[in-house]
Amino acid sequence: xxxxxxxxxxxxxNEKQEQLEQEEERTIAPVSNDALESAxxxxxxxxxxxxxxxxxxFTEDIPQLKELGVKVIWLMPIYPIxxxxxxxxxxxxxxxxxxxxxxxKYLGSYYAISDYTDINPEFGDFEDFENLVETAHENGMxxxxxxxxxxTGWDHKWIEEKPEFYHKNEEGxxxxxxxxxxxxxxGWTDVAHLNFENEELHEAMGEEMKFWVEKxxxxxxxxxxxxEVPTEFWESIVPQLKEIKPVFMLAESExxxxxxxxxxxxxNWEGHHIMNEMAQGKKTAKDWDAYMQKIDTTYQEDDxxxxxxxxxxxxxxxxxxxxxxxDASETMLALTYTLxxxxxxxxxxxxxxxxxxxxxxxxxIPKEKGKVWPLLEKLGKLKNENKALHGAKxxxxxxxxxxxxxxxxxxxxxxxxxxxxxxxxxxxxESTSFSIKIEGDFEDYLSGETIEISxxxxxxxxxxxxxxxxxx
Length: 472
Fold this sequence. Notes:
The protein is α/β, with parallel strands linked by helices. It has 15 helices and 18 strands. Helix 10 packs antiparallel against helix 11 (285-298).
């Protein structure tokens, strides 16, 4: 018994020593709210990021992302893609294409995963992935993986080995995801729908997630269609992940219940749609004010959302930033940086990308810096350094500022620890003269010029013109 106790304590000492050595080897502090308050997140589409479409090609550019204030890199799914039922277009499967050479160009959806613990050979190997994570950490950035818990590809081993993990129809056949409201397929025919009523699936899925945190030091996950997976699963696995190391969890959802015990941040989908509609003249600045009042009463004080003008879904399926937002594009981009929460950059956005990236085929983003890169540099620096833009669990305050043209002019103030910032934007395609209930001399952050504002003197803004004003 004495020998057993001695061995037990010796094992614990060894574990502590290994933990201390791992902490010493880290080149970045563990994920914390302090780091996330001032963070910019970058969505990396590895396949389309470069002509090579590899981890190595993306890793080379990580130091450049630092110039944009990026602190979190979200990697779109990096796992092998199923061949069975692989999509060629939104409606066509590669199995419908007879020409074998034509078939080869269709690489399938990243979200049809055949193995959660392997690497898509398109991108490289595990050594290349490790290098990417290490390079990100050396540059002060965390790496989170896109996690698709709702469904697998049709080649996944669970289809044969664990068919009880899946939803089935009346004939006992595994199904693709079904819309519960209509009983019809969502059209995601390249994936098989997992059934989380099976408790064994919870454990199996959790082990797959822990693999990446334990073995490859990833810093968290972005959960695809998070609200379609039972909240109980997320609330069970996240504490287990945090026992390994602190992690950052992003939900592709606005469901406030997900933030209670599982996720740190959700998607600002409703805000994004309102931005699109303001740019298209369908909604006004007053609609935005109503939305901000709504979320103020809907969410807990420490809940926060990711703001964006594009992402992989929006770009490929709904149109480029210019297609959706036109001349309002820059105004809306600046808005995403000045709101509470965290702003997103999607691969290619920094290079003024104005094309829809192919989703199932090889495509490549432009790599020439134009107008957007220097703007993102300035906005990223402001987000990183100005406490008035803190946006996570201890976010700076947000206060609407009254103007005489509430339908057209959006104005608000952010404030924290003595730092103040004011956003004023013309949310219309008409030149607008208005008065505003603030007084003083302010610095226009982007131009460096002094702006004098008084309540008894009208301001004039051209269509979609905006100011970001900071303390002098």
